[in-house]
Amino acid sequence: MNFPKKLLIKIENSPNLPGCYIYKDINKNILYIGKAINIKNRTKSYFKNYKILDPKISVMVKQINDVEFVTTDSELEALILETNLIKKYKPKYNRLMKDDKNYAWLMITKSDDFPRLEIIRNKKNTKADYFGPYVNIKPIKRALKSLRKIFPYRSCKRKIKLEKKVKKLIFYSSNKKPCLYYYLNLCNAPCNNKVSKNNYRKNINNIKRFFRSRKFQIIKELKKEMQQYSKNKKYEEASMIRDKLEDLTYIAQRIKVEQDMDEKLWKIKKDLNRIESTKKLISKLKFKKLKYKKSFRIECYDISNISGKNATGSMVVFVDGKNKKKHYRKFKIKTKNEPDDFLMLKEVFKRRFKMKNSDRSFRIISDLIIVDGGKGQLSSVIEILNNYKLKIPTIGLAKKEEEIFKLVNDKFEKIKLKKGSNELFLIQRIRDEAHRFAIKYHRLLRNKSQIKSVLNDIPGVGDTIRKKLLKAFGSSENIKKASVKELQAIVKNINTVKNIKKFL
């Protein structure tokens, strides 16, 4: 079988990380979505062992023309992502999970006088407490089995209700005798009035406490019990406790994970949306050589100044639609003290590409450049790029009408993006971040300049003391608020301290 060369190259360069792989046919339709602890090993196995694959799988593999990878931090996240992707796209060859099966939840009823515990798939009962979600229900069942020995509860569906008027138990069942679980000490038989409502609910509340916040107390007690058995050479009993501990520890870990589960799912979906928005933006910009690839890098630049004073330039970096603050850079403009955004941008770009040879993070050439500004700013940037013989797709985003321009064959082309679209929102978000970063640095320089001018007028305050004060307090307002004792920790001369307090 001759597979497409591009596909095999992608497979060979796939990540050695947990995550999901998405197989597509020649028409970009999704054929199959799978998860793996190691994406590379898993995907290579399809093509390496093609001849010995199950016939159904080999039929699918024959149709594969492309593959996409989404990495995660763990196998559990990969499983959750896989489930969500399958639910969304319903691929042809994903038979097992195509029935929209949901995660498992532990439900504890609240409306019953004697609440029931049940593992369910859909949270339909609004009068119940839910704990989950859980991907694998077997450990939950085993853990509940262990908990039930400590805190007995009913699992039957008998309708049991306490009549308040006569304060006696009324139950609706053809069998008034306790079931087998009562004799196994797994149920305290509320159906036969063997336990009061309060005592029964104490057990239920203890189980809830375990699933909420006090689970480790039970684990601690079991550990002591296991150690005691082991000390007395009762290894079989110690082994049984160890098994219980493993199940309870698993549940405890899941409880910890579940608190962040919705957030993690939201983050995963958000990342997918960012990637999708980036792809749509690339498509709308219509640059000939601009195609989406993993780790697609966008750099955006902005200038901030007031009448040319304390001018700053900013560079922010987004990869796959997500900001990478470690790659941000700020520039203090050196060549111009008058308002001239064009020349300031030129300075920023010259310095940025000179630094390419000295700073590792600058060696990566951007896939797309966004300039905060219109035709003039865009022309200035492209001039610098041409000087460095760099053909990087570059666009300008004008602030007033949110118009997007690109320069093609010395002619400006206007690009229309639908208002409210994800791709326009992505550009605006990147531009706003560059603007925020530039203003933040500009304000810092302006404040330092103002402080410097104020401190210069104070007798006894020279360059050394001024620098120490700025480093310690950050602003003239903070210096003003500082006590004499705090100032003396920086400035030893009491007369100078008095002058500072007097002048400020």
A few lines on this structure:
With 504 residues, this protein is an alpha+beta fold. 47% of the residues lie in helices and 18% in strands.
Write the layout of secondary structure elements.
Layout: H1 5-12, E1 19-24, E2 30-36, H2 39-48, H3 55-62, E3 66-71, H4 75-89, E4 104-109, E5 117-120, E6 128-134, H5 138-150, E7 159-163, E8 168-172, H6 180-183, H7 197-231, H8 235-258, H9 261-285, E9 297-306, E10 309-319, E11 322-323, E12 329-332, H10 341-354, E13 368-372, H11 375-387, E14 394-397, E15 404-408, E16 411-415, H12 422-456, H13 463-473, H14 476-481, H15 484-488, H16 494-503
Parallel strand pairs: 9-13, 13-14
Antiparallel strand pairs: 1-2, 1-3, 4-5, 4-6, 7-8, 9-10, 10-11, 10-12, 14-15, 15-16
